């Protein structure tokens, strides 16, 4: 805490700080607009949703859209909890596998020397730059040859080899984990896996928390449509999309759905960021 | 010395050394194995397959026919729209790539100085366009082509214009609007990474620097913060390159597909056109290969530049 106060004093003028703060607030307000719009839409009664010219803010807020949504959810042929379950299973399995495999590989690539390491690092960087659109077809063929069509695995397993996470965590391990710390642990007789698990992973917590939020975002919207055709294996976004596909009459419900789809990532994001800050608070004390 | 030993012995010795190295580092290979298996199966193999496909004619129904470099010749000599797309992509990337990159860093850097709670809140607000799925809807409201569009309404009211402007259909404005919206949405992945990275810099570095005679925040930025961030900056650069060179989604959402006169048609949209609408996978793959190499080239240049940071 002392350090922060001292740092702030380094040639900062109150006027300059204030100016920066005002610019930040203006920028943030502008950025927040679609979120505010989504919230505002969800509480608009139908007549306001169709008001022309469209208004940004709600005039007579109502909960009728949410009421309608829950009514429709109740009529779903497959219970909504099943879709939610599918979503949770897919997201949790994807995230855990991605995090574990990628951090283990990132640790090895960052801190050890072995044959092929340079080449491997090159391939990782290159793989980040290939357009995904043309890889879809070969990918489909591979997944179907494993017989994974209509299973969770079709979505889950490919995420375990996502290079974005590996590359991200490698940068953090390079920058944050001191070599002599690992040497000391090795002399104390810690196994490589223990070093990874008990020393490296806690230090790079901000890295994997950031990765979690990024990956969650990717996965949260997935309908599983490319690989999963069985209705009872589809995800929550698919079910909600089906509900709002009812056209004009479902506009209100669609606005409510948009808010729910937004709210969950926001909550996860806030928990996540406060965790990152907490880690920083404690690691700065030593 | 090596010349005196027969070739087969030399090869044999090399192999033996190689094997000993592998055995010594077996734990490392074991740690890499799970990721590598998945990564090769679902990324490397598909990429290699699509590179092979780029030399064929493949309509996804019949067996691919080998055509050599015909797809590549077609791209540059016969496909006028591809050349338009190349020009658009270059313009778009030259503006949005560097600007969005700097925006991510500068805002992360400014936010980093605030107290934790304010920081978390502002981070959320700046990241909001990446979370809200319907971010473009607001822009279509703003730039709506009739007189009720917010911007048209404003300009008409103050007599700046006397008839509504077709912002999203008129080729004169489309590129600028697409660029503005892209910049507005750019505080995504790298922004979060920069924030986490900045917070991870050891405060002792700054203390030491103050003792060594760092005078102001610009020196602090150049000599301490940027060098400490080098790895994250490379990460951000790759994200900026892929986002700008492979832009497509936000363009389709804003101005439709295809855009008027292909005014903002990008290479990535062209690839999607051939890959998912016309089912000419060979040609689409060839374009993806060209796009890939231009990204790699750019990345190499940026890498050289980043090496100079803090000197």
Features:
heterodimer; A: 286 residues; mainly alpha; MetI-like fold; 14 helices; globular; disordered N terminus; B: 311 residues; 2 domains; two-stranded antiparallel ribbon; 15 helices; 2 strands
Describe this entry's structure for a reader.
The complex is a heterodimer of chains A (286) and B (311). Chain A is mostly helical and 286 residues long. Chain A has a domain of 170 residues: MetI-like (MetI-like fold). In chain A, helix 5 packs across helix 9 and helix 5 packs across helix 13. Chain A has 14 helices and no strands. Chain A starts with a helix and ends with a helix. Chain B is built from 15 helices and 2 strands. Chain B folds into 2 domains: 53 residues, no CATH class; 237 residues, Orthogonal Bundle (MetI-like fold), CATH 1.10.3720.10. The interface between A and B is large, with 96 and 96 residues.
Topology diagram in text:
The complex is a heterodimer of chains A (286) and B (311).
Chain A: H1 2-9, H2 14-42, H3 46-49, H4 64-74, H5 80-111, H6 117-127, H7 136-145, H8 153-159, H9 163-176, H10 179-187, H11 192-203, H12 205-220, H13 236-244, H14 251-283
Helix pairs in contact in A: 2-14, 4-14, 5-8, 5-9, 5-12, 5-13, 9-12, 12-14, 13-14
Chain B: H1 7-24, H2 26-53, E1 56-57, E2 65-66, H3 70-78, H4 80-111, H5 116-131, H6 135-142, H7 150-157, H8 171-184, H9 189-199, H10 203-211, H11 217-228, H12 230-245, H13 249-255, H14 267-277, H15 281-307
Antiparallel strand pairs in B: 1-2
Average predicted local confidence, pLDDT of chain B: 88
CATH class division of the domain at 76-245 in chain A = Mainly Alpha
- Main sheet characteristics of chain A: none
**What is the count of helical runs of chain A?**
14
- How large a portion of the residues of chain B is in β-strands, by DSSP E? under 5%
Name the pair of protein chains with the most residues at their interface, and give those residue counts: A-B, 96 and 96 residues
The radius of gyration of chain A is 24 Å
Run of helices and strands of chain A = HHHHHHHHHHHHHH
What is the assigned CATH homologous superfamily of the largest domain in chain B? MetI-like
Distance N to C terminus of chain A: 11 Å
Q: By helix and strand content of chain A, what is the structural category? A: mainly alpha
Q: Helix amount of chain A, in percent?
A: over 70%
Oligomer state equals heterodimer
Global outline of chain B: flat
């Amino acid at each position: 805490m002392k350090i922060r106060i001292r740092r702030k004093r380094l040639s900062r003028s109150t006027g300059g700080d204030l100016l920066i703060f005002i610019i930040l607030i203006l920028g943030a307000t502008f950025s927040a607009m679609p979120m505010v719009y989504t919230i505002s839409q969800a509480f608009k009664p139908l007549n306001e949703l169709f008001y022309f010219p469209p208004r940004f803010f709600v005039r007579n807020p109502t909960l009728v859209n949410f009421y309608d949504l829950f009514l429709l959810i109740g009529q779903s042929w497959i219970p909504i909890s099943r879709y939610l379950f599918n979503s949770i299973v897919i997201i949790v399995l994807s995230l855990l596998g991605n995090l574990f495999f990628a951090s283990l590989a990132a640790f090895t690539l960052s801190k050890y020397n072995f044959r092929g390491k340079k080449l491997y690092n090159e391939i990782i960087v290159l793989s980040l730059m290939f357009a995904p659109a043309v890889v879809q077809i070969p990918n489909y063929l591979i997944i179907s040859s494993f017989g994974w069509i209509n299973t969770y695995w079709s979505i889950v397993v490919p995420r375990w080899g996502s290079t974005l996470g590996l590359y991200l965590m490698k940068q953090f391990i390079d920058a944050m984990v001191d070599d002599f710390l690992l040497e000391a642990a090795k002399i104390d007789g810690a196994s490589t896996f223990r070093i990874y698990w008990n020393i490296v992973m806690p230090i790079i917590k901000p890295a994997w928390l950031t990765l979690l939020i990024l990956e969650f975002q990717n996965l949260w919207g997935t309908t599983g449509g490319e690989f999963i055709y069985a209705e009872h294996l589809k995800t929550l976004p698919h079910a909600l999309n089906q509900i709002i596909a009812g056209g004009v009459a479902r506009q209100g419900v669609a606005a409510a759905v948009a808010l729910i789809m937004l709210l969950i990532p926001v909550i996860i994001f806030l928990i996540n960021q406060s965790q990152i800050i907490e880690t920083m608070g404690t690691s700065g004390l030593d | 010395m090596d010349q005196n030993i027969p070739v087969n012995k030399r090869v044999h010795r090399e192999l033996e050394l190689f094997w000993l190295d592998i055995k010594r580092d077996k734990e490392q290979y074991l740690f890499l194995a799970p990721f590598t298996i998945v990564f090769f199966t679902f990324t490397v193999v598909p990429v290699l397959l699509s590179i092979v496909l780029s030399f064929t004619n493949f309509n996804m129904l019949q067996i691919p026919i080998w055509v050599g470099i015909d797809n590549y010749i077609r791209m540059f000599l016969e496909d006028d729209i591809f050349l338009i797309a190349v020009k658009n992509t270059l313009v778009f990337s030259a503006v949005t790539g560097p600007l969005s990159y700097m925006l991510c860093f500068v805002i992360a850097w400014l936010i980093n100085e605030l107290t934790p709670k304010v920081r978390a809140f502002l981070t959320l607000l700046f990241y909001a366009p990446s979370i809200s799925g319907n971010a473009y809807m607001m822009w279509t409201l703003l730039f709506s082509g009739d007189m009720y569009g917010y911007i048209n309404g404003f300009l008409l009211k103050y007599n700046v214009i006397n008839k509504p402007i077709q912002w999203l259909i008129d080729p004169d404005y489309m590129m600028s609007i697409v660029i503005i919206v892209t910049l507005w949405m750019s505080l995504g992945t790298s922004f979060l990474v920069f924030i986490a990275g900045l917070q991870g810099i050891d405060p002792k570095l700054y203390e030491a620097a103050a003792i060594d005679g760092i005078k102001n925040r610009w020196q602090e930025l150049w000599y301490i913060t940027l060098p400490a961030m080098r790895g994250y900056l490379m990460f951000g650069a790759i994200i900026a390159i892929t986002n700008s060179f492979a832009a497509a989604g936000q363009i389709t959402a804003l101005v439709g597909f295809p855009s008027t006169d292909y005014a903002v048609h990008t290479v990535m949209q062209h690839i999607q056109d051939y890959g998912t609408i016309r089912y000419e996978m060979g040609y689409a793959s060839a374009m993806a290969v060209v796009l890939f190499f231009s990204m790699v080239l750019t990345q190499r240049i940026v890498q050289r530049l980043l090496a100079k940071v803090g000197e």
